[in-house]
Amino acid sequence: MTDILVKVDDLSVRRGDQFSLSHVSLAVKPREIITIVGPNGAGKSTLLRTMMGLIRPESGVIIRKPGLKIGYLPQTLTIDPVLPLTVRRFLSLGVNVSKGTRQALMEEVGVPHLIDRPMDVLSGGELRRVLLARALLRDPDLLVLDEPVQGVDVSGQVEIYDLIARLRDEHGFGVIMVSHDLHLVMSATDHVVCLNQHVCCDGTPEAVQAHPEYVALFGDRVAAGLALYAHHHDHDHDAHGNVIPGSGDGHAGHDHG
Predict the structure, then answer these.
(1) How far apart are CA 188 and CA 159, in angstroms?
(2) Please, are residues 128 and 134 in contact by the beta-carbon 8 Å criterion?
(3) Helix axes 154-171, 124-135, angle to 10 degrees
(4) Is position 10 within any domain?
């Protein structure tokens, strides 16, 4: 188990008289990015929450590395505009963290200028980056990301997936995340699990995208040969999100044409 952060074996979760998950097995290692894809209602968020210990499984085994620290980015967050809450305050809620640490995390996710901005006026992309900064507060061993690009436009989605891969490289944590768009996330992920209550198929992004069960789940647009969004670095971004010349050898880039 020394090279495993969290492992589930033959995991089943029941909701009422139906199973949300049935006999699911997978493991996340340090520095590995695993992406869970599948249709709505496939049990993707249920799997993440069960792995974190928030949902009790019907059967199966969950093993976590002793002392495992998890950073979590939820799918949705509702901010009441009647109660003013700045980004600085949000990053301090329930956590004893220094001003320098907050600022450093905002630099890492590329939006340091938002530190005193009210949470309720942030754009979709800005909010996801702030949520990512909060997920990093505990210096996690494992990042659990539930739809990390929810409410973000396509070019912004690619940048966030690129950021996640870059943070993984710098910090060495493992990542497990839910996504609907394998063709967007493929260059920033190592392993894909296609889920529909059970594991339909898993493997590299290229292998899963060509698998008959994946094609059956995602329909004619995939069967017709939808090109994977294989993006490559021809530039990088500084801490403020500005474009700077890149080395051309990163995990993902921004070839949006």
Answers:
(1) 10
(2) no
(3) 20
(4) no
Q: Which residues contact 66 (CB under 8 A, 6 or more apart)?
A: none
Count of structural domains within the chain:
1
pLDDT of residue 193: 94
Which amino acid is present at 222? V
Note the pLDDT tens digit of each residue in 81-93: 777 899 999 998 8
Which of 8, 31, 55, 60 has the alpha carbon at shortest distance from 169?
31
Indicate whether 88 belongs to any domain: yes
d(CA 139, CA 129): 16
Residues 6+ away with beta carbon under 8 Å from 64? 5, 6, 53
Contact 211, 179 (CB under 8 A): no
CATH no. for residue 105? Answer: 3.40.50.300
Q: Pairing mode, if any, of strands 191-196 and 174-178?
A: unpaired
> Using an 8 Å Cβ cutoff, are 163 and 105 in contact?
no
Beta bridge partners of 160: none
Write down the pTM of the prediction.
0.81
Pair type for strands 70-73 and 59-64: unpaired
Q: Tell me, yes or no, whether 109 lies in a domain.
A: yes
